[in-house]
């Protein structure tokens, strides 16, 4: 028997040659990780080491909440755009309506002004027609030259005019406490039965035109041109006239050279 027969062997057991695999699993940063690692095999083995890693997203509550909020935000933005579009449309329609109303108001105002002007024109034409008829009647009823130049008619005329001296000048007034220029001459000639037109323009075309160097008592003096005179008075002899001059002087008697008239007409 050998002396070493009873000595136990200290040789380590032989490792199996078959390959072994380890599976490790872990969750890192919200992902599930699977790792498979092959054990070392001899160089002459048919298989090579293999390492495989697969990551899968983990759906968390925070991710779901974020997605819901994004959807709500998108819906709110769409709603805001729609509301703004409706407001813009309403403003545009209101502006168009206001412009239309303004245009209609302008048209109505123009039509009213045109109507008023037409009425004024017709009233003026009617007044002129009445004045013309009145002038025709006064011409037919006027006394003859021999009678008109008689002492009685001119004396009555001049007497009336002198009685008005010192009274007030009031535009548009025909007496008895105040007159304007044509109102005074009309009132004076009515005293001797002659109906004169109301305004200076028409009085300056009555009777016969006479020169200023051939005046007689009772001739009507006018300032401006015949038919468009702006002032009238009456010649009372001795180079003087009586007239309702203005609001400052009232009815006065003045010499011709105080304010030389343009022309004169004779109705007596």
Report what the structure shows.
The chain is an alpha+beta fold and about 270 residues long. It folds into 2 domains: about 60-140; about 145-265, endopeptidase domain like (from Nostoc punctiforme) (endopeptidase fold (from Nostoc punctiforme)), CATH 3.90.1720.10. It has 5 helices and 11 strands, in the order E-E-E-H-H-H-E-E-H-H-E-E-E-E-E-E. The chain has helices spanning about 60-140, 145-150, 150-165, 180-190, 200-205, and strands at about 20-30, 30-40, 50-55, 170, 180, 210, 220-225, 230-235, 240-245, 250-255, 265. Strands 6-11-7-8-9-10 form a 6-stranded antiparallel β-sheet. Strands 1-2-3 form a 3-stranded antiparallel β-sheet, with no helix packed on it. It has a two-stranded parallel ribbon with strand order 4-5. A hairpin with a 7-residue loop joins strand 7 and strand 8 (about 230-235). The longest helix is centred in the middle third of the chain and has 81 residues, at about 60-140. It is rod-shaped. Mean pLDDT is about 75; it is low at about 15-40 and about 140-150.
């Amino acid at each position: 028997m050998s002396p070493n027969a009873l000595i136990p062997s200290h040789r380590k057991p032989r490792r199996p040659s078959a390959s072994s695999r380890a599976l490790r699993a872990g969750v890192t940063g919200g992902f599930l990780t699977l790792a498979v690692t092959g054990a070392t095999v001899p160089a002459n083995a048919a298989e090579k080491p293999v390492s495989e890693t697969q990551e899968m997203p983990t759906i968390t509550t925070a991710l779901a909440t974020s997605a819901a909020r994004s959807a709500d935000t998108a819906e709110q933005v769409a709603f805001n755009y729609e509301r703004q579009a409706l407001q813009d449309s309403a403003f545009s329609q209101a502006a168009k309506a206001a412009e239309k109303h303004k245009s209609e108001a302008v048209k109505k105002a123009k039509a009213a002004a045109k109507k008023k002007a037409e009425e004024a024109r017709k009233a003026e034409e009617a007044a002129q027609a009445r004045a013309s008829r009145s002038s025709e009647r006064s011409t037919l009823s006027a006394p003859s030259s021999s009678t008109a130049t008689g002492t009685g008619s001119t004396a009555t005329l001049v007497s009336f005019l002198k009685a008005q001296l010192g009274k007030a000048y009031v535009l548009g007034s025909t007496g008895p406490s105040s007159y304007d220029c044509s109102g005074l001459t009309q009132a004076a000639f009515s005293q001797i039965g002659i109906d004169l037109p109301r305004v200076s323009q028409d009085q300056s075309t009555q009777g016969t035109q006479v020169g200023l160097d051939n005046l007689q008592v009772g001739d009507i003096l006018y300032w401006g041109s015949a038919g468009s005179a702006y002032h009238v008075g009456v010649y009372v002899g001795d180079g003087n006239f009586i007239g309702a001059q203005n609001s400052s002087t009232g009815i006065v008697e003045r010499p011709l050279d105080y304010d030389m008239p343009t022309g004169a007409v004779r109705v007596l």
